[in-house]
Design brief:
Helix 1 packs across helix 15, helix 2 runs parallel beside helix 3 and helix 13 packs across helix 14. This protein is of the alpha/beta class. The chain folds into 2 domains: 192 residues, Glycogen Phosphorylase B (Rossmann fold), CATH 3.40.50; 178 residues, Glycogen Phosphorylase B (Rossmann fold), CATH 3.40.50. It is globular, with a radius of gyration of 21 Å. Strand 5, helix 3 and strand 6 form a beta-alpha-beta unit. It has 15 helices and 14 strands.
Amino acid sequence: MPGENKKLLFLTLVRIKSLDERGIYTDLLRKFQEEGFDITIVSPIERRHLENNSVKVVDGVKFINVKTLNIQKANIIEKGLATILIEYQFLNMLKRHTKNIKFDIILYTTPPITIVKPIKYIKKRDNAISYLLLKDIFPQNAVDLDLLSENSLLYNFFKRKERCLYKISNYIGCMSNANRRYLLTHNKYLKKECVEVNPNSISPKKLLNKYSNRKELNKKYSIPFSALIFLYGGNLGLPQGIDFFIQTLEKNKENKNMFFLIIGSGTESILIKKFIEKNQIKNSLYLPALSKNEYDLIIESCDVGLIFLNKKFTIPNFPSRMLSYLENKMPIIAATDTSTDLGEVIENSNAGISLISGDIDSMQFALNQYITNKKLLTIHGENGHKLLMNSYLVNLTFQLINNKL
């Protein structure tokens, strides 16, 4: 029908309840809605939430919530089984609840790679364009972390699924140049013109007064007013190289000029919590995952953002937590593997300091740079914000995808 809105289907592992939430996916979907798209979101309800399948419409967006096993922050056996089953669960709900919708585009993310069947079904049924936002290269990341063997049946199963997902995607958006190069180098069958850089992006909030809540933050968590606050926020799992972060805490436990604030959850978070408690480290505090609003209030008053990546990675990761740091004008210290171009992006923009994970001397140098040179905090923070505004706004991601239509 003339003037009818375009229809977008979004498949994700992230549980989304409303587009009012802030995040790389909700910000993008909100932009699509603002541009006149009708949106349907399919996402899991993991069994830990004790809820059943549900379908509802919130502010014009259709939410199809699919009951699954625990996928994220779960043990490897349940995670693997959940990853295998999810495409059948998604497909079943799509068949039941989208009969009267003809989608123009299917947008989906990795993880997981095992959602080929629902994409194939909708693509064939509606003649829709399929666009993959590549946020994770699996199963190679599991091999890097010694969670899977390249000789195992499970690895070969997931490798076939990965190939199917890539081949069924009309377009693939990668998080960085290194990400794109890796994908094309290791998947020769992909067409270069169908693989592009489409980075993590957000709609930034207005930052009126960066340190407006600093006094309350220091008082609430007994943080010395003279100490710089180094924030490590987000997922805390094997990919984050927690062992080197703990080494950093140990090395600086007597330094009263530094305070390490750790906020998040994940399979390795208990190691950090126990380490701080056992060693009675006074200049470090662990807080479990907070709501986005609570986290936003805290991050506004922190000084430096920390990123850690496991040094074993051969795939180029590009963590989305960087965007929150840039948004809040925080310099970044990134301890990374040798495969990612994250450090290169940060240093070329003069927005922080990069080093190889495990190099404790370089980490000490980076920390002390900000302790001894407070002007550097402002310079790197401002440059980081410029980097965000020039390269990581949601408008860019929207345009790249919308152009395919």
